[in-house]
Specification:
- The protein is an alpha/beta fold and about 280 residues long.
- The protein folds into 2 domains: about 200 residues, 2-enoyl-CoA Hydratase, Chain A, domain 1 (Alpha-Beta Complex), CATH 3.90.226.10; about 80 residues, Orthogonal Bundle (Lyase 2-enoyl-coa Hydratase, Chain  A, domain 2).
- Helices cover about 40% and strands about 15% of the residues.
- The chain contains 10 helices and 9 strands.
- A 6-stranded mixed β-sheet has the order 1-2-3-4-6-9, sandwiched between helices. It has a 3-stranded mixed β-sheet with strand order 5-7-8.
- Helix 1 runs parallel beside helix 2, helix 4 packs across helix 5 and helix 8 runs antiparallel to helix 9.
- The two termini are about 30 Å apart.
Length: about 280
């Protein structure tokens, strides 16, 4: 796929996806939805990609949905390019694909992140932000409701009380409030943001087994919905059993004892253990 709304750049094992509609503050449209999903597919298929960073071009990260259609922006039945009736929301399709990703993903929020511009980051693993960034779950002020699976992710990220306050009011709030509320992990001067995100990605790339990282990602996220710790015990035990027999486990121990960098050989595209995936597929209906 040729990209018109994002940039896709792999350097030294780290993929940077840049939302690239700076003239529109990187507003989200259907092309961006399709391209983000395709970029995730490419990243999962490429074993040279060890970590992913998502950022925005220009002043904003993403100013939310493109409102070029005016009052009909959110009316699916009014669009010529969509079937009438209930359809999956575009932001949700992106969030679900990010949730399924087999690579660690870091949001480097360089500016305004509003509406889908912030909800799409919720299934990303680590969110860093520029100290000048602003955030807003503005849906109620537009007469709609939160989307992109954010009714699942946001309370888990920030807690139910803060999530409801932000969504009830729909107000735009500063980066410090996002940090205080757990929405982002750290704030940096805008010019330092990408370097800080890359440092995290490099640490993962240089020191951790790719298959282990992929399994950890799914174990952590999916256990957020488990109804008992026994479910985690089952998956942890399978992981220890299968990975404990792998060449990566031997290499991890031997490299530590020999005080040298590990060289892990298992590939996410080929060597995930036989119990993966352990969950039933979910479908929209």
């Amino acid at each position: 796929m040729d990209y018109s709304t994002i940039l896709y750049d792999v350097e030294d094992g780290i993929l940077t996806i840049t939302l690239n509609r700076p003239e529109a503050l990187n507003a989200f449209n259907r092309d961006m939805m399709s391209e983000m999903i395709d970029a995730c597919d490419r990243a999962d298929a490429d074993d040279d990609v060890r970590a992913v960073i998502v950022t925005g071009a220009g002043r904003a990260f993403c100013a939310g949905a493109d409102l070029a259609s005016g009052g009909d922006t959110f009316d699916a039945d009014a669009r010529e390019d969509r079937e009438s009736g209930l359809q999956p929301d575009g932001g949700g399709r992106v969030s679900l694909r990010l949730y399924e990703l087999n690579k660690p993903i870091i949001a480097a929020i360089n500016g305004a992140a509003v509406g889908v511009g912030i909800t799409m980051t919720l299934p990303m693993d680590i969110r860093l932000a520029a100290d000048v960034a602003k955030f807003g779950f503005v849906f109620a002020r537009r007469g709609i409701v939160p989307e992109a699976c954010s009714s699942y992710f946001l309370p888990r990220v920030a807690g139910i009380s803060r999530a409801l306050e932000w969504c009830y009011s729909g107000r735009v709030f500063p980066a410090q409030e996002a940090l205080d509320g757990g929405l982002v992990r750290a704030l940096y001067p805008k010019d330092d943001l990408l370097a800080q995100a890359r440092a995290i990605a490099e640490d993962i790339r240089d020191n951790s087994a790719p298959v282990s990282v992929a399994l950890v990602r799914h174990m952590m996220w999916r256990m957020l919905g488990a109804d008992h710790p026994m479910e985690a015990h089952k998956i942890d035990s399978r992981g220890i059993y299968y990975r404990g027999r792998s060449p990566d486990a031997k290499e991890g121990v031997e490299s530590f004892l020999e005080k040298r960098p590990a060289e892990f050989v298992a590939k996410v595209s080929e060597d995930m253990p036989e119990y993966f995936p352990w969950w039933q597929p979910r479908e929209f209906s």
